[in-house]
Amino acid sequence: MKILLVGGGSGGPVAPLLAVAEEIKKQHNSAKFLLVGTARGPEKIFAEKENINFVSIPAGKLRRYFSFANFFSPLLIFLGFIKSIVILRSFRPDCVFGTGSYVQVPLVWAAWLLKIPVVLHQQDLLPSLVNSLCQFAAKKITVSFESSQRDFASSLGLFYKKNASKIILTGDPFRQHLKEVNREEAQKFFKLKSDLPTLLVLGGGTGAAWLNNLILDSLPQLSKTVQILHSTGVGKFSKHKFKNYYPYEFISDMGKAYSVADIVLCRAGLSTITELSNLSKVSIIVPMPDSHQEVNAFFLHQHGAAIIAEQEKLDKEILISIIRRLIFEPEVQLALKKNISALMPKNAAEKIAEVILKIING
């Protein structure tokens, strides 16, 4: 059994791919996987850690705003399409599984041409442009939220129509091994103090420059309240030396990082939200302005599942005030943990693995 996973550009689209691969491996230990992603994203690091072969293809990012880079996207997509055909003919997968990253467009189109079954997963509340462009090629589309079942169709062009049997509500996959970590051992691993609360700062696999700068500006005061475990992003390592500050360019073992975190400061990517939900973490969410993340963050706000802070209104004084409030008001922490834990289904990876295996075996 061979399954080709496609996604990347950031860590968000890769996490559900690995979660589903982990679940399939439990049922079919001999299953082989190949992860196809971008050359510059962090997906190669993820693949190597999971002992999954990796290969990159050219891919043009489909921006919904004006950018000179858009003029080169069609050429990159075409080059990616040609390389995808070579990869598919060489690897000969029984199924292709994609999670909405722009790198999937040429590969899914090539898989459709070669009549290789495709399964897509829609993570966010808002349908991605990539999945909308690829939906015609998919045998099944799994979605994280009930409302997303109305966002996709069964075919293309004049025959565009809804097909409820093609769209399956599963929730967003979670890597179960992230739970299987001892907190004390993780504290020793990061050389953290056991008697001081830990703030885990995540900007995503590629890092968020704005969040990084906010933390650096806040360090003199913030480090008196908490110890900071900071994932800066690849190529954005912080050389600042400060008491109670522990920067890492890339944290390869997120299970350890989550286990020591009392509070998580992060963006509103759906993979991160899924992990926070499954691990019942207290979080401060700063959605990326003018993006789908604002919809994700509003969903969290509606359910009282996280502290939501707008980037335009957040500064170091407000951040420190929020963190101190969370530390000294345990009832607020308990409410946030309870609400975020109830937010996401806990067996999504198992459901999606079942969908893929049925297609392969069918």
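(the above was protein one; protein two follows)
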Amino acid sequence: MAGSYDVAVIGGGIVGLAAARAVLNREPDLRLCVLEKEPSVALHQSGRNSGVVHAGVYYAPGSLKATLCASGRVALKEYANERGIAYEECGKVIVASREDQLPGLRELHRRAEANGVAGVRLVDGRELREIEPAITGIAALHSPVTAITDFRALALSFAADVALAGGSVCHGFAVGGIVQDGDGVTITARDSRQVKASRVLVCAGLFGDRIAALVGDRPDPRIVPFRGDYYRLAERKAGLLRGLVYPVPDPALPFLGVHLTRTIGGEVLVRPNAVLATAREGYRFSAVRLRDVKDTVAWPGFWRFAGRYWRVGLSEAKRAVSKRRFAAEASAFMPGVGRADLTRAWSGVRAQALDGAGNLVDDFAITAVGRVVNVRNAPSPAATSSLSIGDILASRVLDHET
């Protein structure tokens, strides 16, 4: 594939495809292409997840995460229903197992109400058992509109929308270089093919920082990959769950902890841990890519982060090789879950952005250099928010002054 376009989108994940679709919805006469290095779209973060459609419980009120999750969930539900893509509002409970977790639960309730999460309420242990008879706890936060869907099916549908609107999706285009000049942007693939575009949007996920660096964007934040491992819960136990079950997160820790999620395919996943990955697309323990390791350890922010959370990292690493630890954490709110109830499912790698001070970048981050707009951080709930993020990115690309 070679040619000239008005807009090129680098990255065929759900956010890039939603943005491409939004550009063509707004300007249907534009020539647009999506450049994806894989043989299909949504093969990484967009396709390796549990399919949870978030309601907006966790996010700081007023943040982009909170705002776009609210509007994005509604838009995604409407889109899925229109296109016949499975979408189920199975609901979610966040369970407090101990008294010291109650302040955290009340804070989540405050956030959820501030974010306008529909129907969210605090329930006591008795009401929790009515909602989820197999779950025990002293209290819980119930979010009835939290849902499950198939995000890869949605991404494929977005790609079909792009093609139907006259855009093109080019597979096997691994970006090797980007050069801007007064006439536009030239994108060169590793196999020497070239695409020229007047505007470029980078939605490269795990490689977003590297693509941004090619156009001279700042090095901060840096992507540090974390692998999350998933287990399937045995059918005899999975059939007891009605929705999604999460623990109250520890505010001192950067991760949510082990939780139980139903999938649109009828399984229940026990997921995930969060282990530093030795490859940005390292879905196995043995996957090591030296450049990825070098990029991680060369970033000062990583060492500052590790200095604060090394104990957490050690615990996560131990859990990664211990089915017993996974089962023990799940049994804290679903009694009776043991090692025999878990079988290995798959793993995913999350693109976690870290700033130079070692802080997790907790909100969506978008920067621009000349004619190129870079999505530097698109953490969860990016898939839930994809249609709303797509609208914002389309505006940034089309309205941005060089």
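Reviewer note on protein two: The longest helix spans residues 300-320.
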